[in-house]
Design brief:
- By secondary structure, this protein is of the alpha+beta class.
- It has one domain.
- Helix content is 41%, strand content 20%.
- The protein has three helices and six strands, in the order βαββαβββα.
- A hairpin with a 2-residue loop joins strand 4 and strand 5.
- The chain is globular and about 55 Å long.
């Protein structure tokens, strides 16, 4: 992404609902590391929340399900340019973020299935869906991914017509 691109950002984050952070943190960190190396990222690759840091990436205003009792839950985040603030995102940026979020969700589906865990997803402080035992709920599947894909298809068609 062009370093001069000035646009508001949001945080797409996830929380693994477990009280046994130590059991899953190393594998999740390695999965994120491999995912980070697999592609170029629009802003930066996803990262784990850092419980050692005052600014750990976990928004203080976020309310996490009661299924976890950790003050610093197991999870992480991906910074994305906001589609809700500022001017409309260029198609290439929006498509790039869609691919990044999709890849992150797919990796977390496998992690959830392997360990029988629930994972919640947030955009900023808003809960937008979850994965349970490797399966996306309707909100994540239809409300986020399918709707985003539909919007990208329209954007692509409009872009192609503008150059026709």
């Amino acid at each position: 992404m062009d370093a001069d691109f000035n646009h508001p950002t949001d945080q797409f984050s996830f929380v693994v609902l477990t009280t046994d952070v130590q059991a899953f943190q190393p594998e999740l960190a390695e999965s994120l590391r491999l995912l980070a190396q697999s592609r170029q990222w629009v802003i930066a690759p996803p990262a784990l929340f850092d419980p050692e840091s005052e600014d750990d990436g976990f928004p203080a205003e976020k309310t996490v399900s009661d299924a976890t009792e950790n003050s610093h839950p197991l999870g992480g985040y991906l910074d994305v340019y906001s589609a809700l603030q500022g001017p409309p995102l260029p198609y290439e940026v929006d498509q790039g973020h869609f691919e990044e979020v999709s890849a992150l969700i797919q990796m977390l589906e496998r992690f959830s299935m392997k360990h029988g865990l629930e994972i919640e997803f947030y955009l900023g402080p808003e809960l937008i869906g979850s994965i349970v035992w490797g399966l996306q709920d309707e909100s994540l599947r239809e409300g986020l991914l399918e709707e985003w894909s539909r919007i990208l298809k329209v954007k692509k068609e409009e872009k192609e017509q503008a150059f026709a």
